[in-house]
Design a protein that fits this description.
The complex is a heterodimer of chains A (157) and B (539). Chain A contains five helices and five strands, in the order E-H-E-E-E-H-E-H-H-H. Chain A has helices at residues 19-32, 83-86, 113-122, 129-139, 145-156, and strands spanning 7-14, 36-41, 51-59, 72-77, 90-97. The longest helix of chain A has 14 residues, at 19-32. The chains are: A alpha/beta (157), B alpha/beta (539).
Chain lengths: 157, 539
Amino acid sequence: MNSNRVTNIVVAGLGGQGVLKASDIIADVAFAAGLDVKKSEVHGMSQRGGSVASDVRFGEKVFSPMVPEGEADFLIVISEDQVPVNQHMLKKSGLVIDPTKIDVNQLRNKKSVNVALIGMLSRHLQFPEDAWVVALKKNLPEPLIEANLQAFNLGRG
Amino acid sequence: MTTGTEQITQLLSGDEAVALAAFDAGLALGTGYPGTPSTEILEYLDHLGGKAQWAPNEKVALEVAIGVAFAGGRAIATMKHVGLNVAADPLFTVAYMDVKGALVIVSADDPGMASSQNEQDNRRYAVAAGVPMFEPSDSQEAYDFTLKAIEVSERWSVPVLLRLTTRVCHSKTLVKRADPGTIKPAPKPHYEHDLKTHVMIPAHARPAHQRLRAKLAQMAEWNEQDGPNQLVPGYTSLGIITSGISYQHVREAAPDASVLKLGMTYPLPLELVRKFAASVERCVVVEEGDPYLVEGARMAGINVENKPEMYRFGELNVNRVRRIISGDTSPEPKPLPGKPPALCPGCPHRNAYTGLKDLDTIVAGDIGCYSLGVLPPFEAMHISVCMGASLGVALGMRHVLPPEQAKRVVSVIGDSTFIHSGITGVVEMVYNPPPTGHVLVILDNGITAMTGMQEHPATGRTLDHARTGKVVLEDLCRALGVKNVHVIDGTMDPMGLEKLIKEAIEKPELTIIVNRRACLLAAKAIKEYERINEQQPCN
């Protein structure tokens, strides 16, 4: 990661899968690192199980809160059927992170797929592991923290 | 909670930033009706410990806020763009009236209609009503401009419009709080009679309108010199005039261009615009939605370039701004459609729609989760105009359709929407009953579900879920003069619900069926609120 350029991440999935939670966690980690961060989302009707996507951008200076089409470095997709819908956001050398890359049966709580995928993402970003743990704890209610730390570690490998 | 002395930087959404500024300014009251993308402002204000409450609708919210300001307090009224249509009546007149405290009206517009029925550009309201308007482009400006709006409101005794858009409301960006010493302390509420500015009879309103225009002229002059407008120097070959979120896309799409970013967009600082346009070879206006800035500039005889008409629709983004600048009007690539939202499995509205479909009804619906009854597998809602229109529109149809078709017309409305603007529809129903009677089904899931589980007057709980007075829908309907009022849980008794609707359709009388069962997503939380409230003494 080069701090002189903007890192673009798109998180996508269906309403109720934790898309916004995942993007909040990523944004918090970048914020804690002292970077300029912008996070964008559209919700409303999307709460009823429809497609949801959220953009996270960070770097020295970020202008638009929306990742331009074809410029995402990472596309995290929590529901596989949303990959084709969001593929156009990814740049040519970009990376798709989806549940096919993790063994979901190993998750203590099946709802933590979003956090397991964040764990996979964390391998590719130069933020310290502690920062991720702090952000996870900040964004999740106490009873869910253990299961999500397990999911994060599973993804981080 | 943070104390007012910390100037820490936080990552906040635009909505949260508005709430934080209002809180830091010692707001007396925040009031509004939940509407995406504005809803989180009052929720966050409450979270901060400020006084926030839901009103039955936007008109009432604005009226209450006007009262707070008349009494010398600082008030904010929040709503989505279509909510300002509901509040337009008080808006246009309060513009003439001297408010003593601050009155800030937030209009959260939804270009691209992420969750709205139209994409009206509420910048037009500023011009039409003659109220000054600020347009922030990120959360920092949402914070700063809220403080600025309070300042302008108090300085000129005018209501101020703070116009946000979805991307500003729901994007999180960095916010640094103001040094508390820089914020003028909130005045102490106090009322003194001032009939000439508080009673808008024609004799008072005529000079009041003239006073408003004089104030606007002063504010325009202030905006030229000291307004929150920003000049970003760049190449003189390309100049861009912009406002709101478009500014952010512009800086990324054209990093070398000269940019004039307008923060206060009514009254426009036209001399600033004129000077800027003259300083560049080509001057393009990049704005989302209507050509509001373009028209303003052109009417003042300033030659600026408008965006091609195709970019009037939907949101702008970096790619679209690049296309606007290069004059590219080739068809835009269409991404694959995503999965549309749907009624939740086990949603209490499902049985109602199954019943209505079985009975081959013509359903005039309303705004809320149950609008999803339009989509497959139900396809059981046929009309939807605006909040509360399910009754009036259906009654109009009943009046003129042949009886066989007329009696199949059914109105469907949610509990929160019923409180918002369905009640007067029932009054119309009682006052001008069609010969075939009419049927209204209130889909009462016990919460404002669509916007994310907000309370309303029929839940009997305030914004922070504490116990308060409760409007009982069936009692209200009976009191309004409807004799056939039934309450049923269609999830537990789907056949009973269908039978009730069928009988009501056959009767040439007025019938209201309250189909009551808590929203599946809210049921657990509602139980918990009720449990806590029962342990508290009732005030």
